[in-house]
Design the sequence.
């Protein structure tokens, strides 16, 4: 990977971090330290990833939880593996049932959008296949922190408070009581520096560790989840949990200017990033800070999202194969649709023939790209009483249009926003990267990849670069630090430009690259949140 380690053209003066033996990068300092400690105890990159992920359910509950989903890309001994840890809809949930209850779209919170949580099974599956330490040993630091408590960090406090205040107004029904019992401190969200404990969370993590995850899907925890949904007339049942296993998959890739960019295949939206990169490769890209470059990036993302939102769902239900959407000839045709002015995105017709983020690396060259989420902050707003299990709301992404690829159906996985990324070249792993944040994620992946490959920025500069986010139509949201002259130029091209008041909408990323020539790792962390890199 070529870049100038001293060049940093953006306001932050943070330099990249280097390490000899290993590295853990994530959005919360305590979690990064936990991953590093696991490496020091003899664990590998997979063990460190699981430990960090479990810790994040404790120290960043406003972004993820035990009741969420996970995806992973693992580079181990020179081979790449993918894990889809997203769960399907309950067997009893149908479009007809939802419409009979008066809904014309899937609700955002409550009992109905809860799908089978995949995170605990993902931890267990990763540990069993690739880990060196026992799952209980790897989860022990998170258990200790949940029992003893931790000092809440500023960004987490802010996000926690936003969710708490919203839930307090919206969720007065009995099924939401346990959420407030779990996540309140003195009848409010915790302030920065206050100590928050979750003994029920610790108990649940211990059960997961002792049973290699089975307590969550077949044992005591499954019984508690089943009883909670039966009591409140929900749909998730113990049978849905018992039937679940995460799926090992072959990651999908595209070659972008000599580099292989890897993503998890659908139902994840990583395919969108690859479609956009294929389109951009077919275009002439000039210097980074030019109106033309940003215009082409935005238009390519719009076209990629149009296809992604039309076709991405549980892969067996897609009407257009993934390979067709990644066809380079198709990408060239889509690139030809990009004009000098902003246009509304349209769905293409290819010919037949795609939160919290963390990354880890160890002394043996193994690397993990891992992402985990409840969706929309605290997810469904539900906690299973006496467990600390905050449940996701991934079913919200389903369509109620029976003709749509992503239509709700029993035991089906929905379109999923969380995506881990990985970069390699000439069959050698370069490293993991990711940018969390809903529909910002594939846009963040494209921006980070181009900052790295096209503009030769080091990992920290690639992350610090001011970001843009296409939202809908011709609307584009810019960070406060985005160059004003570029924003004005984009407006003249027909983009409906608005500048955000803060950086919360633009994702939070982490990068670790392996430098084969120097025998070290180099990492970048997200300065938009409480991120940290711990290295050996």
Sequence:
């Amino acid at each position: 990977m070529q870049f100038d380690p001293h060049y940093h053209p953006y306001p932050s003066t943070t330099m990249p971090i280097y390490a000899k033996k290993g590295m853990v990068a994530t959005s919360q300092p305590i979690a990064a330290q936990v991953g590093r400690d696991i490496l020091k105890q003899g664990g590998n990159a997979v063990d460190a990833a699981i430990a960090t992920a479990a810790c994040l359910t404790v120290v960043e509950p406003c972004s993820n939880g035990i009741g969420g989903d996970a995806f992973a890309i693992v580079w181990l001994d020179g081979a790449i593996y993918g894990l889809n840890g997203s769960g399907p809809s309950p067997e009893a949930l149908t479009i007809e049932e939802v419409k009979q209850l008066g809904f014309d779209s899937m609700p955002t919170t409550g009992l109905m959008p809860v799908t089978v949580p995949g995170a605990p099974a993902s931890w267990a599956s990763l540990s069993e296949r690739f880990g060196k330490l026992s799952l209980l040993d790897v989860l022990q630091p998170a258990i200790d922190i949940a029992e003893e408590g931790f000092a809440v960090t500023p960004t987490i406090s802010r996000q926690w408070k936003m969710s708490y205040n919203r839930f307090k107004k919206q969720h007065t029904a009995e099924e939401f009581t346990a959420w407030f019992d779990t996540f309140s401190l003195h009848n409010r969200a915790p302030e920065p520096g206050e100590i928050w404990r979750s003994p029920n969370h610790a108990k649940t993590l211990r059960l997961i560790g002792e049973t290699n995850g089975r307590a969550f899907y077949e044992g005591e925890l499954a019984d508690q989840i089943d009883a909670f949904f039966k009591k409140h007339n929900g749909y998730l049942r113990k049978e849905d949990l018992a039937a679940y296993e995460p799926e090992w998959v072959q990651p999908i890739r595209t070659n972008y200017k000599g580099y292989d960019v890897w993503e998890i295949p659908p139902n994840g939206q990583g395919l969108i990033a690859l479609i956009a990169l294929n389109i951009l490769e077919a275009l002439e890209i000039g210097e980074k800070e030019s109106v033309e470059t940003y215009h082409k990036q935005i238009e390519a993302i719009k076209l990629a999202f149009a296809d992604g939102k039309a076709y991405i769902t549980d892969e067996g239900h897609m009407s257009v194969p993934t390979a067709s959407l990644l066809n380079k000839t198709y990408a060239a045709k889509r690139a030809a649709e990009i004009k000098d002015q902003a246009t509304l995105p349209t769905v293409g017709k290819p010919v037949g023939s795609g939160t919290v983020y963390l990354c880890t690396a160890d002394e043996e060259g193994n690397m993990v790209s891992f992402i985990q989420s409840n969706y929309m902050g605290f997810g469904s707003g539900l906690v299973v009483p006496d467990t600390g299990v905050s449940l996701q709301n991934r079913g919200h992404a389903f369509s109620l249009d029976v003709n749509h690829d992503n239509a709700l159906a029993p035991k089906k996985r929905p379109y999923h926003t969380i995506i881990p990324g990985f970069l390699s070249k000439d069959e050698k792993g370069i490293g993991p990267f990711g940018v969390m944040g809903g529909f910002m994620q594939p846009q963040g992946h494209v921006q980070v990849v181009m900052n790295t490959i096209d503009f030769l920025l080091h990992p920290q500069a690639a992350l610090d670069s001011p970001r843009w986010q296409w939202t809908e139509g011709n609307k584009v949201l810019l960070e406060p630090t985005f160059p004003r002259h570029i924003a004005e130029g984009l407006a003249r091209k027909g983009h409906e430009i608005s500048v955000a008041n803060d950086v919360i909408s633009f994702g939070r990323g982490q990068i670790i690259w392996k430098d084969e020539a120097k025998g070290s790792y180099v990492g970048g962390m997200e300065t938009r949140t409480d991120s940290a890199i711990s290295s050996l």
The chain has two domains: 17-248+357-397, 249-354+422-466+508-529. The chain has a mean pLDDT of 95. Residues 17-248+357-397 form one domain.
